[in-house]
Amino acid sequence: MPYEKTEAILIRATDFSETSRVFSFFSRRFGRMSTLAKGVKRKSSRMIGQVDLFSCGEIVFSSGWYRDRMHILAEACAFETFPAIRDDMARYYAACHAAELARAMTEEEDPAPDLFGELRGLMRRLQAGVEPAVALLAFEARLLLLTGFLPELDRCVVCRGDSGRGPAAFSPGLGGVVCPDCSSEGGDLFEGVSTGALGILARLAEGRVTRLDRVRIAPTVKRQVRRFLDRYEAYVLGYPLRTAKHL
Amino acid sequence: MARGSESIDGLTAEFAKMPGIGVRTARRLAFYIQSIGMNEADKLIEAIREVKARAKRCSMCYNVAEQDPCPICSTGNRDRSTVCVVERVQDLAIIESSGSYNGLYHVLGGHIAPLDDVHPEDLSIDLLVRRVTEGGIDEVIIATNPDTEGDATANYLVERLQPLGVTLSMLARGVPAGGQIEYAARGTVAGAIAGRRPLPAKAP
What we know:
The complex is a heterodimer of chains A (247) and B (204).
Chain A: E1 3-15, E2 21-27, E3 31-37, E4 56-66, E5 70-80, H1 83-86, H2 89-104, H3 113-128, H4 132-146, E6 169-171, E7 176-178, H5 195-206, H6 219-237
Parallel strand pairs in A: 3-5
Antiparallel strand pairs in A: 1-2, 1-4, 2-3, 4-5, 6-7
Chain B: H1 6-16, H2 23-35, H3 38-54, E1 56-57, E2 64-65, H4 71-74, E3 79-86, H5 89-98, E4 103-107, H6 125-133, E5 139-143, H7 148-161, E6 167-170, H8 186-194
Parallel strand pairs in B: 3-4, 3-5, 5-6
Antiparallel strand pairs in B: 1-2
Helix pairs in contact in B: 1-2
């Protein structure tokens, strides 16, 4: 049976049997993928200590399918383990949210090397001490852009006019900001989203902010962006994320 | 599914709901039940009834026992000033079988794992905080699993318990006895280096 090798981040681990576990990875070459790690809970397993939630490393797996659902994990070697994430609840919850989002917003085995890079970048930033809320907002903005779900943030989606003319409303159905003149056509609107908050999201999505450790966002604006993203992500997915309540 | 006995299929389906048991194992168990005598089957039924009727959570430590408080909490010959916090009852049993600990326990019922919809309020953390607040406990040993979720749970416990002025400690971690450094993971070696201990001075 042919074997494949890729760099991957573990985004979920669930028990499969007394000694085996199912590991969901976000990999550089194959995107999100599920593998069965047979006997990984045994004391003699070579993978003990090599595969842990959010750790990044190289995995080798057989490319055949087990019960039509997953590959068999043959080997794993962790390069980076990000211990700071486990030492701080804000970092831990941010990493959990990113993992849940990456899992929910992508298809199984749809290669997304850029998104893999963003996820690993988030883990590195959390490890380096960047404020978890800011690092997560930047990751989510990039994820929305890379998955094609980033809404129109700088001009009205109805009249294409400048959205900065007045208090913004956001129409998830139309996929963007609606100016005050067109707000009657927006359907269900998210009220109370400032143009400043959406502007920050747009800048983070473009990836122009290179030094996130130097970014300072006013707490009220940060709350607005957070609340907006929680609602928008729930709208896109059709359900709220489990990890959202901790952010 | 029914090609033979519907009752075998029904029992197979029930066994297959159990953790770690797939359909093939479930079917093997179902056929085993069919093959044993009525007496044996009655004993099994009675054992299941007994567990359901008598085994319950201890109101103090969340251990599973037939009396409340459980035998560990109610006995007089244990160190009542030390509490060892574990994720599951199985972990308690392993520590107890090591014979190296004579204090009390507290079973959390799992670890904080938002990805699996397990949040702090789903665990018996408030009960632990109440135990410590009531006094009489000098040290809490946090014995969660040494993985990301276990460490995050330990970190949350530290946040909740530190203000109460109790001594907090964690299980040592590193290269296992009988293991070899060559095959240890980086994190394991890092833990062993960080948690190294001075050797006792030898008499000249």
